[in-house]
């Protein structure tokens, strides 16, 4: 039985509370971002406070990690245990930190490309495709694709034909991985790497990488701002889950 003190919203009322359209609210319900709704005898949806909590949490989370990842994650945050939900949020912070570290490694690699280092590259420091893929957190197939697009120029072992990545290829791979994580398509990344190879012109690459660092900082701050709404969501969901 419904608590007489509990506020009930129409679709339009709930949408206005968070600045969404009624169609957005219906779509988010269909995608299980919102809890299932009850219907009146004449078929109209009726939403309660738990729907407002979920919708506000989704809006905050989408601002931090993007709408598509937020839509995929919300059903888990709504229904998982407190431990599982907290772990998923911890992983979001960790992923941002890992991406920031990769961008900084790419900036170091960029510096190494441009500066005329007096230290000769030791062949023993070259990497296999598996080692480089693991270091960058990408699949080996991605490295092969980047090679097909001309972004990477690994050496081939004369006997086995296996790829070996020396300093220039490792640096190009770090730059590519960092920019791909930021949503940049391959063609402009390729043009930047070509300029570096031909002229040592690193300004565009440095600007893009610095912009990526700024984007990651914005995401970190937005995720911190979302913590209040996410806490309310998890606490509300936990209190609504019957004890076993």
TrEMBL record:
Alphabetically ordered keywords of this record: DNA-binding
Q: Where is the HTH merR-type domain?
A: 8-48, 126-195
Domain of life where this protein originates? Bacteria
Spell out where the chain crosses the membrane: none
Gene3D superfamilies named among the record's database cross-references: 1.10.1660.10
**How is this protein named in the record?**
MerR family transcriptional regulator
Organism the protein comes from: Microbacterium bandirmense
């Amino acid at each position: 039985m419904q608590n007489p003190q509990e506020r009930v919203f129409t679709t339009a009322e709930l949408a206005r509370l968070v600045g969404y359209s009624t169609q957005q609210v219906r779509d988010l319900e269909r995608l299980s971002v919102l809890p299932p709704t009850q219907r009146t005898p004449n078929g109209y949806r009726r939403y309660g406070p738990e729907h407002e909590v979920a919708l506000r949490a989704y809006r905050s989370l989408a601002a931090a990690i993007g709408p598509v990842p937020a839509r995929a994650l919300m059903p888990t945050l709504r229904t998982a245990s407190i431990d599982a939900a907290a772990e998923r949020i911890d992983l979001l912070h960790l992923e941002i930190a890992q991406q920031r570290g990769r961008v900084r490694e790419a900036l170091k690699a960029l510096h190494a490309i441009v500066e005329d280092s007096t230290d000769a590259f030791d062949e023993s420091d070259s990497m296999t495709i598996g080692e480089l893929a693991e270091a960058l957190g990408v699949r080996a197939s991605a490295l092969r694709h980047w090679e097909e697009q001309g972004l990477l120029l690994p050496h081939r072992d004369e006997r086995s034909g296996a790829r070996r990545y020396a300093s220039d290829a490792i640096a190009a791979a770090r730059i590519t991985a960092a920019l791909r994580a930021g949503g940049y398509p391959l063609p402009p990344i390729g043009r930047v790497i070509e300029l570096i190879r031909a002229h040592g012109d690193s300004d565009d690459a440095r600007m893009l990488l610095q912009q990526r660092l700024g984007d990651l900082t914005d995401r970190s701050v937005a995720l911190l701002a979302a913590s209040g709404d996410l806490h309310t969501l998890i606490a509300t969901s936990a209190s609504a889950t019957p004890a076993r």
